[in-house]
Amino acid sequence: SVQHSSSTLRWRCFRRQRMEGMSGSKQHSRADRSGGAAWPLSRFGPAVLFTSAALAAILYVAMNSDIHPIPSHYVAKLLWKNASVRPPLLIVLTVAGWAWVVHICRAAALNLEKVLGGTVQPVRASCHAACVLFTILILTHLVHIVASETPGITWRPWLVCNLAMHAIFFCVAFFPLQIFHADSRFSLVRTLLESLIAPFAPVTFWHVIVADYLTSMAKAMSDIQLTACLAASIHSTEASSYVRSTDIWNAQHEICADTYANAIMLALPFWWRLMQCLKVYSITKEQKNLWNALKYSTAFPLVYAGYLRRHSPSLYHDRCLIAAAIVQSCFTFVWDVLMDWGLPQRAPPASSSSDCCGYVLREPLLVTRQKGVYFGLCVSNLLLRFAWTLSIFGGIPGRGAGMFFFETIEIMRRTVWAIFRIEWEVICKVYNAPQETKHLTSTDSEGSEEMQPLEIKDIED
Question: What is the reported pTM?
């Protein structure tokens, strides 16, 4: 009876705080639609105009090309032609996906400021950032496509423009002036840099979200290494006559991919996340952080098995890869469901609802009340985990459109993961928090990434 009364009181407190969150969410939505902090649609005008003009120019060149008469060739150049194209586009998709995460969380009245520990950039601002980055990407491709249609050019426009695109994205991120979403950009860059030195930097929930996104972009990291290796090979190639960059790229691709450097770049995001887990453990001394560290450690045998499979294909290495993929995918899937989303909970003794092995779907459900969505979330997450693991780490041979497809669906999976990960963090910090701790600060959340709220001291007003 006492436990039921405590649960009821906690639920009422949570509902009251959620109503306050819904009020704040409505204020954020109104701010987006109004003038001041809002991002009026007119701010998107220049980016949309330049992008439309660039796409029209690319279409015109494609329809009147004598060198590349197939229009689909230009689509491949824009999206998935090779490793030098995909990383910038994946960054655009990630930024746009984060805007969708914020939109869904606002619609569900989740208090993002409380769990992320600071002001969250408005949805339209993130959409504007993605739009501008996509404009830069399209304009860069326009230069190299137009140049590649000009006979006699030997400065390799395809390679030079792709390398320039990477450099531009890097400069935009680290640009020191107070322009182009400076506050959010600086916060993201600072979080990225702190994630690289995780044992010596703080680990908050925002650091966890950013570092987990990096693990989903592990293939993009290896693509950057591959681009650098192939660019060096192309520039160092000496021939009596001009050799097309594409021919050199195809000839050197397997050599650059079959290197320790490529495997290390593929494993680095998991190493950074592993260091974060150990950092949190050094503070909290909670064993669940060691289990989380073990989860990220399962990526290293997978990366090495994929390297061995490429370096010396054999039935034994195939089996090693499959075994490592099963262990890594199952471990991460179980952790997603149990710890990152906290979906199953023990069924009450007098519960009349149907349960599975003594467990039921947890309450409350904040993003949606439709339980089928959560079951579909688990099934799709399992399938996409296996698909990404087998494709990215060398199980499924593929380049171009196939690899771009698998990288894209992993970004989509991570975007959906982030929504329900934030939902569980809100539940831990609001619903499961003691009644007297109604106002939490960002410092209270250090280490809460491991799914359970830390012990919080009373806060005096």
Answer: 0.85
